[in-house]
Amino acid sequence: MEMASEGAKVVVGSGQDNSVAAQVCEEIRAAGGEAVPCMESVTTMEGGERIIQTAVDNFGKLDIVVTCAGILRDRMIFNMTEQEWDDVIAVHLKGTFTVVKHACILFRQQRSGRVITFSSESGLVGNSGQANYGAAKSGIAGFTKVVAKDMGRYGVTANAIAPRANTIMIGDIPDSAAEIRARSGVAAIPGEDLLTELDPSHIAPFICYLASDYAANVNGQTFLVYGDTVSLMSQPRPERSIYEPSGHWDLQTLVPLARDVLTAEVSNPAPPTLPRE
Known about the structure:
By secondary structure, the protein is of the alpha/beta class. Helix content is 43%, strand content 13%. It has a 5-stranded mixed sheet, sandwiched between helices. It has a two-stranded parallel ribbon with strand order 1-2. It starts with a helix and ends in a 15-residue tail after the last helix. It comes from Geodia barretti. InterPro entries: KR_dom, NAD(P)-bd_dom_sf, Peroxisomal_Beta-Oxidation, Sc_DH/Rdtase_CS, SDR_fam.
């Protein structure tokens, strides 16, 4: 909606639920914009290509691609099934690739374009019960940095957004995962006091910024976006190092330096707890 209000012609995808895309398109058209729905799956190369072709067929060209398709299949790592792993990787990580790859074919030819992907704090810092989602979102952050380097020479930028937002995906969180997080002091589903701050509409203006000419030199970055806050995330870099003059470590010399220097200030994000009775 926000991008359409800024003049973008929009292809709206919604996976298996056709009604969502149709409703959004109706709202965009009612406001005077142009939009078409697309029900193709991002989980196949053919689907990704058809999504891009839908934009070209309806609007003549493609300038911006935003990859925000997503599902959740949360479960603790010892309970997660192969299918739950595969489903999340297919939609988030592969789904980002299938769309971005075909968009970049066009962007390279026209020597312009914007790629905006969706990562997550779950992938950047971790979140209990989300091994599949965290792996996919971490992969998307790395993928986006590579796309930025691949495509920058062609006048194309690629950046990732890690949003905090209350979306329909939250309905996919199983009760078991929510209960475990609650015992750890982590809210799986936001309370009323957070709903305003986590309104997805807060994310949209920054997407528009990254898609604009104002951000022509912003490339390969990750941004945390929620409520009234936008943060540029730091790039991974060495924080502390130890060295062995001989060029080869052995355990005897490594232990004191690793313990007292390298990891001296490192804390365990999930320390052991007593068994539940």
